[in-house]
Design brief:
46% of the residues lie in helices and 15% in strands. Strands 1-4-5-13 form a 4-stranded mixed sheet, with helices on both faces. A 4-stranded antiparallel sheet has the order 6-9-11-7, with helices on both faces. Helix 10 links the parallel strand 4 and strand 5. The longest helix has 18 residues. It binds uracil (URA). The site of uracil has 9 residues, from helix 9.
């Protein structure tokens, strides 16, 4: 078999066999197939798609590119959640400690920024010292000792996804249903959690733009997960405007900690509770949504979840001082407000544009291996539906370069539409799939 023949076969719209997919994935993982061939293959998949059988085979091949963790020695009920990618989506930073504070183990493999969407690992790495690159032994030890672990793909765990993910980020091949499904589910299968809730985003700031596509992605991932013996549910949630107020790595860490302290933005708090409730329900540890919410409220208001966040960060070598002193986080040299150009209601905030603005400020990567600027980003003062007057601050823009600041300001002003009439409210949770 030759890599080029497999690329051409997909380019010409034919379905690949399990052997061909395996040959490509394992060869790429071992370094025998070059990055440029893998990028061409990803583009062929992006353009031609894959059927359900091919997507399942791709997922399993990527999952088996490294070890498959068996977490039964930790617990028969390790919990996990995964987002399909959004803007301002720092949900894991709040949901993981909420769940673990209920003494339920939470173990997860996360990703970095992808296209316009932010990545959980990049956000957490804004905290000085925090480490994503854990060995299998460290992953299990942290889960046993602290009850929360979040790690990146490694040489041992889902290495094929680690390599392909970094290529997709910078080759225009992110928003492909089979590539997303395989990327997410290979990580979920490899990391070993038995119970998983998928948070599938829909809207302008998501890779799935319609509810139909988001539902198709969710159903396929649920089926792949169940086929691998996991209990999987999904939430289809809105991503037509950024989630919460903050977009940008360190800024999102602050917002997550503020949320754990009871001072988070209403939409973000509600979203975290909705996702965490589904986790408790499919895990069978809550009788109904009311019961689940009461349990979560208990550990939130008592401060137990906040302390769990500190334990988690410290356990992965990050500084716990971040809980009390945000000055330990990188801070941008320029922080200025952007003002409303006229009176009106905020009718729309184009979330993908906001995500790209954050990337252009330095918060994401333009090419594989780029370092990122953790300090930059945007903090909204108002969201869709708010009524603002001319000259009132719409947002605070954090930048480390004046030219980038000016470009970001223009792009953000173009991404925010003001109207004379109030817009229809955005629905946060579109659908639950169990
Ligand atoms: N999250 C992932 O892990 N992979 C994707 O492709 C998209 C979101």
């Amino acid at each position: 078999m030759r890599a080029v023949d497999i690329i051409e076969k997909k380019r010409d719209g034919h379905a690949l066999t399990r052997e061909e997919i395996d040959f490509f994935v394992q060869g790429f993982t071992r370094g025998e197939i070059a990055d440029y061939q893998a990028a061409a293959w990803a583009m062929a998949i992006y353009l031609r798609g894959m059927n359900e059988e091919e997507t399942t085979n791709l997922t399993l091949s990527m999952a088996h590119s490294g070890e498959i963790l068996d977490l039964a020695s930790v617990s028969p009920r390790v919990l996990d959640k995964h987002s399909s990618g959004g803007v301002g989506d720092k949900t894991t930073l709040v949901v993981a400690p909420l769940i673990a504070a209920l003494d339920l183990p939470f173990g997860k493999m996360s990703g970095r920024g992808l296209g316009f969407s932010g990545g959980t690992l990049d956000k957490l790495e804004a905290i000085p010292g925090w480490r994503a690159n854990l060995s299998t032994e460290e992953f299990i030890a942290q889960l046993k000792r602290i009850g929360i672990v979040v790690a990146g793909q490694t040489h041992d765990l889902a290495p094929a996804d680690g390599k392909l993910y970094a290529l997709r980020d910078v080759t225009g091949t992110v928003s492909s249903l089979p590539l997303i499904a395989a990327s997410i589910m290979s990580k979920k299968i490899a990391a070993g959690a038995q119970i998983i809730v998928l948070d599938v985003k829909v809207g302008k700031g998501a890779f799935m733009k319609t509810e139909e596509d988001a539902t198709a992605l969710a159903k396929l991932m649920v089926k792949i997960g169940q086929g691998a013996g996991r209990v999987v549910g999904a939430v289809i949630s809105d991503m037509n405007q950024p989630l919460g107020n903050a977009v940008g790595n360190a800024l999102e860490v602050v917002e997550a900690i503020e949320t754990l302290k009871g001072r988070g933005p209403a939409d973000f708090v509600e979203h975290c509770f909705a996702v965490a409730e589904q986790i408790l329900l499919i895990a069978g540890v809550a009788q109904n949504e009311k019961d689940a919410r009461a349990k979560l409220q208990g550990v939130w208001t008592s401060g137990k979840a906040l302390q769990k966040f500190g334990d988690w960060i410290e356990g992965q070598s990050g500084t716990r001082r971040v809980l009390e002193d945000y000055a330990v986080l990188p801070r941008a040299q320029i922080t200025e407000e952007v003002l409303a150009p006229r009176d009106g209601f905020i009718a729309a905030i184009q979330a993908d544009e906001v995500g790209y603005t954050s990337v252009d400020l330095g918060g994401g990567r333009a090419k594989k291996g780029d370092s990122i600027d953790y300090a930059v980003g945007i903090v909204f003062k108002h969201k869709v539906g708010a009524c603002v007057t001319r000259g009132e601050p719409l947002l605070a823009l954090h930048a480390n370069d004046r030219a980038k600041f000016d470009a970001a300001k223009a792009r953000l002003l173009a991404a925010i539409s003001l109207s004379d009439v109030p817009p229809a409210p955005l629905q946060l949770i579109h659908k639950i799939i169990r």
